[in-house]
Structure to design on (678 residues):
């Protein structure tokens, strides 16, 4: 076992997959000599060379397009978005080219790519360095969407994503990069976290919290506070947002009968809305209260601290809504 | 490197005439391919009129055959192409069967896309044919990726020919793709079929420079602006571009000037004679690439009139048979609509 930060876990996973499989390569902005804006790929170009660690122009469409084309020709590409916000430039490549490729090739051409990058707020990044875009891609057939909350999951999910034969959007919450530490297995263990499996990070029986990304940590903080009030929260960390592990959610809902869905993105049309709808369709008779949500306000993520705090969900918001739900 | 736009027509003296290497058999095969393209187009228009093709649009390429034939004839079997909606014959020139292509047009279960996507949105990576989407510029970055995979495998001289209309050169992906290819000196040849209209929009509202080839200057790569209705000029230019690209010098842009004699698709025939001057259409009708090539062949003295039938009967028969094959082929089962959305096979490198 190794003690690492969240960022180092991602770095280790990519490094080990590149050592294991010569078909894996990286492409992105400033990822070579500089090692990427956050340093995830520091030292990769010295080890793997210029052709496998490609410093691309500022061209998200080209970066993702090259990843797709190389994948169609048998490679496994990892495309770094310097900030996941910039994926909007490459949106067509992701949703119209990558996601559809297997389908429109009659099953001939799979696209094993990972489009990864830092996402999320709470760091004063303002409008274009703070967003959570999972709902955009959650809506698109053919894509998988992953967002880990802990180093071991980040490590195992990244390896699984690289080995997966489908395009994977891998969201790395930048708030967690250096704040969250943990242990990961040694390379020989070949540790994989299968995509599509949620993990119960804390068992409980008063209510079920379904969440992912940085919100897992917020939910765990809230759970510790509420424990003193006799409210026992079961915290489900989705880990993979698409496809959803609904079985784990349904099993928990049947136990607690109350659900709080938490997500950092704007409330309207978020992933939590779909989760809520499915729970209502499948578990209606088990519910003792409406499925409730804590999410960002329907706004952009503003720069100034009081503004950002007002828009994004807080531990206090979770505590407040969880109490309401517990006493419903 | 020179970034001057080259016009083979004005510097013909200095340019290599690759056409001189063509044998009589080559010349005849080029003639037959031109006719294959023409008959393919005419047959599908006819099928649409007769109601035997009831779904989807037919995007005609009458008058643009010299580009399809001239750009593909000098390619190696292991080169890549990404044809677009006016390049249907290229799928056959690059190794698909006519039956496969017709099944695609009719949306049949045994089509390359299994009835999932329409018309030219197909490919076959085993034949080096890259699948395009409706967002035509978007395939340029993908082509760069296919070439990047070749670089990783040490196949630096396999070329990719990516096709576009002049309208698609106004898109962002065209720029990002060519910029990437030029920065990394990828063997990408972009063939712009400048048929003067993007749907109804004339070229001067798509491209601000005197020629589309002028766009090459921005990438520091060679740009050619040539007569796209002269199959041997297209062939010569392509040979020159291939030598350049295979030598590792980077991408090339070739603008083939031509004209869309028909509407954008078969539904557009009436309006296409309203948003364009009829005299303009008539002028281009006189520049028919097949007529011109046939006249040239006769002047060489290598062929008699009888050796150059208009059209060769076996080609008509081949295409007709493929149409009947497609019509009789099974429709896809409804449940297959949900197949091939994900690949859940073991995630190991192929």
């Amino acid at each position: 076992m190794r003690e690492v930060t969240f960022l180092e876990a991602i770095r280790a996973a990519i490094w080990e997959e590149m050592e294991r499989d010569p078909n894996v390569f990286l492409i992105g902005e400033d990822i070579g000599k500089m090692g990427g804006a956050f340093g995830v790929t520091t030292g990769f170009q010295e080890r793997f060379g210029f052709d496998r660690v490609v410093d691309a122009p500022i061209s998200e469409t080209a970066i993702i397009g090259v990843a797709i084309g190389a994948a169609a020709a048998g490679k496994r590409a990892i495309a770094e978005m310097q900030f996941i916000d910039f994926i909007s430039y490459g949106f067509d490549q992701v949703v119209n080219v990558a996601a559809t490729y297997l389908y429109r090739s009659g099953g001939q051409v799979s696209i094993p790519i990972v489009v990864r990058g830092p996402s999320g707020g709470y760091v004063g990044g303002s409008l274009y360095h703070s967003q959570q875009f999972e709902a955009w891609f959650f809506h698109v057939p053919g894509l998988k969407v992953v967002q880990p909350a802990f180093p071991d999951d980040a490590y195992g999910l990244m390896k699984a994503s690289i080995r997966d034969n489908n395009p994977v959007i891998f969201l790395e919450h930048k708030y967690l990069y250096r704040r969250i530490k943990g242990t990961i297995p040694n390379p020989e263990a070949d540790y994989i976290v299968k995509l599509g499996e949620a993990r119960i990070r804390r068992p409980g029986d008063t209510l079920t919290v379904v969440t992912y990304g940085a919100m897992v940590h917020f939910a765990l903080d809230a759970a510790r506070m509420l424990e003193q009030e006799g409210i026992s929260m079961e915290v489900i960390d989705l880990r993979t947002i698409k496809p959803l592990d609904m079985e784990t959610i349904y099993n928990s809902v049947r136990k607690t009968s109350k659900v709080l869905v938490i997500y950092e993105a704007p409330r309207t049309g978020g992933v939590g809305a779909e989760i809520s709808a499915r729970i209502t369709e499948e578990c209606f008779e088990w519910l003792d209260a409406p499925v409730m949500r804590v999410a960002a306000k329907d706004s952009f993520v503003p720069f100034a601290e009081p503004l950002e705090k007002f828009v994004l969900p807080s531990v206090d918001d979770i505590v407040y809504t969880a109490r309401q739900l517990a006493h419903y | 490197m020179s970034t001057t736009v080259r016009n083979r027509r004005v510097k013909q003296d200095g340019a290599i005439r690759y056409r001189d290497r063509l044998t009589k058999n080559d010349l005849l095969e080029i003639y037959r391919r031109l006719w294959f393209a023409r008959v393919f187009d005419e047959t599908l228009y006819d099928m649409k009129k007769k109601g035997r093709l009831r779904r989807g649009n037919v995007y005609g390429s009458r008058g643009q055959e010299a580009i399809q034939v001239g750009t593909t004839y000098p390619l190696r079997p292991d080169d890549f192409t990404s044809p677009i909606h006016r390049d249907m014959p290229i799928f056959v020139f690059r190794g698909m069967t006519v039956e496969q292509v017709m099944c695609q047009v009719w949306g049949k279960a045994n089509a390359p896309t299994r009835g999932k996507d329409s018309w030219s949105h197909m490919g076959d990576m085993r034949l080096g044919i890259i699948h395009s989407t409706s967002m035509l510029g978007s395939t340029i970055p993908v082509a760069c990726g296919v070439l990047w995979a070749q670089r990783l495998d040490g196949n630096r001289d396999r070329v990719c020919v990516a096709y576009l209309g002049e309208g698609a050169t106004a898109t962002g992906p065209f720029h990002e793709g060519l910029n990437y290819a030029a920065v990394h000196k990828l063997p990408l040849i972009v063939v712009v079929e400048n048929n003067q209209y993007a749907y109804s929009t004339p070229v001067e509202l798509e491209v601000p420079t005197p020629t589309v080839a002028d766009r090459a200057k921005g990438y520091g790569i060679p740009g050619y602006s040539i007569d796209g209705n002269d199959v041997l000029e297209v062939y010569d230019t392509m040979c020159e571009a291939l030598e350049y690209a295979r030598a590792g010098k980077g991408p090339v842009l070739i603008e083939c000037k031509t004209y869309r004699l028909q509407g954008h698709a078969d539904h557009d025939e009436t309006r296409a004679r309203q948003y364009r001057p009829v005299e303009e259409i008539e002028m281009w009708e006189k520049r028919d690439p097949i007529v011109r090539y046939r006249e040239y062949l006769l002047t060489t003295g290598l062929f008699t009139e009888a050796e150059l039938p208009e059209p060769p009967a076996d080609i008509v028969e081949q295409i007709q048979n493929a149409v009947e094959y497609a019509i009789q082929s099974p429709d896809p089962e409804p449940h297959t609509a949900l197949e091939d959305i994900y690949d859940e096979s073991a995630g190991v490198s192929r």
